[in-house]
Amino acid sequence: MVVATHSAAPRAPAKGRILTCADKLFYEDGIRTVGVDRLIAASSVTKATFYKHYRAKDNLIVEYITNRHHTVRDSIEAIIAAAPDAATTLRQLVQAAVTEIGTPEFRGCPFINAAAEFADPAHPVRQVVTMHREWYIDRITELLRAAGHPVPGDAADEFLLARDGAFSGGYAGDPIAASAAMSRVANRVLDDVAINER
């Protein structure tokens, strides 16, 4: 998986430590189960420093999920920039997902996990999740259109559903079976490109 950081202004060292610790703890243990005192201890800051930078845990949660979006976006854009064509890009995105699912620290999709903890669609966390998923589906649709798929929007929905299923099944069940199933769906989607080109 390509890891990239977004191009926002540099954070203060303490603020960056807090976010780094929150990113790890929220993803590993769940957002609501990790309290402010644990975040403060893990990031080696004072309570005053935590509240100076974030004022409330909710602000940190929104920054955490926003930062996850930036990381995924930058990783995908790096794959797109390096690939020779759209079909290759899509295959590399599948491989990146398979690689991620196979890592020991994998805990599923952070966006699906966050959505499960914040049921209200109007909550700022859910709004970031929705924005991320809309961005992702739009980007996959653009790639499928560039690859020559006859119905890129429908195919992108299938691609995202396969990815969602693989991320959920890869964590809760058998990661090898989940990855293989995602690869089969992606191959069928891309086979439609080849058929369309004949």
Distance from N terminus to C terminus (CA atoms, Å) equals: 33 Å
Structure class: mainly alpha
Number of strands: 0
H/E series: HHHHHHHHH
The residue fraction in helices comes out at over 70%
Mean pLDDT: 92
Task: Note poorly predicted spans.
Answer: 1-7
Radius of gyration: 18 Å
> What about the largest sheet?
none
Tell me about this structure.
With 198 residues, the chain is mainly α. It contains nine helices and no strands. Helix 1 (13-29) crosses helix 2, helix 5 (86-101) packs across helix 7 (124-147) and helix 6 packs antiparallel against helix 7. It is elongated and about 60 Å long.
What topology does this entry show?
Layout: H1 13-29, H2 36-43, H3 47-54, H4 57-82, H5 86-101, H6 110-117, H7 124-147, H8 152-172, H9 175-197
Keywords:
mainly alpha; 76% helix; disordered N terminus; 198 residues
Summarize the structure.
76% of the residues lie in helices and 0% in strands.
